[in-house]
Amino acid sequence: MSEDKYRCPHEGCPREFFTQAGLDVHLASHEVKVEKPKAEPKVAEPKPKPKPKTASKPEKKPQPKFDYAARKKHMRKKLDAEVDKKYTRGEFLKMLHLSEDAYSARLKGSSFKVTEVREMQNGWYRITAESLGQKVLWREGPIKGTWHVTVPRL
């Protein structure tokens, strides 16, 4: 054994180390370990089987029926929307000839501002109104002598 090597003092261990620190770490691994009593293996509870997913579509809320015939009775005779004019929610729905329940969940604002009124070549008007980042677009015009207002696009 050379002078610069440190040998493990345990019987049957042939390891040699160049430093005392290396030997100390090795000796820590030769310590007699006290065996802990083994814990009983845990019995896994049976997991409930996941329900198979059905291919059905999620249920949609029923949309209120749109009665165009009733709406047609109350149509105005001319365009009454003005650019940069603000309308309250009730005035706006009345101007579109809509009932409060038909569009109440879809219209977000409490007031609407008409941003554009554009006349088209066929005598119809395209009106755009905005409220809280929501844009509403509809058209109005004559068909066979009566004034019609289309259903608005949101």
Quick summary:
This protein has 154 residues and is of the alpha+beta class. It contains 4 helices and 7 strands.
Report what the structure shows.
With 154 residues, the protein is α+β, with helices and mostly antiparallel strands. The chain folds into two domains: 1-34; 68-149, no CATH class. Helices cover 18% and strands 24% of the residues. The chain is built from four helices and seven strands; from the N terminus they run E-E-H-H-E-H-H-E-E-E-E. The strands form two sheets. The chain has a five-stranded antiparallel sheet with strand order 3-4-5-6-7. A two-stranded antiparallel sheet has the order 1-2. The longest helix is centred in the N-terminal third of the chain and has 10 residues, at 20-29. It is elongated, with a radius of gyration of 42 Å. The N and C termini lie far apart (92 Å). The model has no long low-confidence stretch (mean pLDDT 77).
